[in-house]
Amino acid sequence: MIFASDLDRTLVYSNRAIEDLGNDDPSLLKPVERKDDNWVAYMTETSFSALKELAMNSLFIPVTTRTTEQFNRFHIFKDDIAIKYAITSNGANIIYQGMLLKEWSAHIINRMTEESVTQKELLAKLKKESFQFDGQMKQAENLFFYFILNSLPPASDLQVIHKVAVLNGWRISLQGRKLYFIPRAISKGDALEYISKREGMKVIAGAGDSILDWDFLKNCHYRFVPAHGELARVSGTNDYTLTKNKGIGAGEEIILQFLQLLRLTV
Predict the structure, then answer these.
(1) Rounded Cα–Cα distance for residues 32 and 134 (Å)
(2) Cβ–Cβ < 8 Å for 189, 137
(3) pLDDT tens across 50-96, in order?
(4) Residue 149 to residues 22, 177, 266: CA-CA distances in angstroms?
(5) Of all helices (H) and strands (E), which one includes residue 156?
(6) Cα(182)–Cα(64) distance, rounded to whole angstroms?
């Protein structure tokens, strides 16, 4: 059976996320991501232990918008918790036994070419609508891009940006200070469905905080959303369990729910 989960602000929390969302007891945190010789992201010790048990007794699949390089900074999946698959770059890449599944990547590139205008064309159309983004633009493996914003655009601007993106085969998601622009072909849901069929397994449960996660959550039998997440504020997504806790405590709550479901189904 498959359990799938987003990582950032769902199971794993950066220093900024902990600062934004709070944490009652820093002494109970387990460092899980290392960058430039510094620990930069955490789970609770209880979450870590529960995830380890879950991964030993089911097919646990991390599903992330992070690039593969960024995902590889999670030392726990190298040193502590063995995983067979990981979905990175919002579904553009599938990692199998540590290696990129090239046939999946080629499939995505072909769809992007057919279904979406180029990044350059999209930015030109947004500029024509007089949109200037107050922040730094980042590339994600030449697949999609995002802005790390200094200030958030008003909701009315986001609606227009969303409309322009959709008309040109793209979509947007605002996660904290990051505004993502992602081609329609790139989908966490499609990648997870591919793995599910490849393995002949059903997806029992999933968890995620952003609208990009709904792509795979809608195909999960049980769905969990952190109370602080973007999904909790978006209309048109429903039929999920909202956590009682916010922040890193929500991640612990989700993993414990996964474990409870595992024990009920074996």
Answers:
(1) 31
(2) no
(3) 999 999 999 999 999 999 999 999 999 999 999 999 999 999 999 99
(4) 21, 5, 45
(5) helix 155-167
(6) 13
Mean pLDDT of the chain: 93
Predicted confidence band of residue 265 (pLDDT cuts 50, 70, 90)? confident
Joined together, the tokens standing for residue 170 give 């793209």
- Residue 96's DSSP bridge partners are 85, 99
pLDDT in tens, 138-182: 999 989 999 999 998 898 999 999 999 999 999 998 887 899 999
Q: Which two tokens stand for residue 198?
A: 């490849």
pTM reported for the whole predicted model: 0.91
Which of 203, 249, 204 is closest to 226 using CA atoms? 249
211: DSSP letter: G
Specify whether the CB–CB gap between 4 and 220 falls below 8 A.
yes
> Token pair 């996964």 is at which residue?
258
8 Å CB contact between 65 and 144 = no
DSSP secondary-structure letter at 147? E
| 140 token code pair | 């994600």
Count the Cβ atoms, other than its own, within 10 Å of residue 113: 11
Number of neighbours of residue 238 by Cβ within 10 angstroms: 8
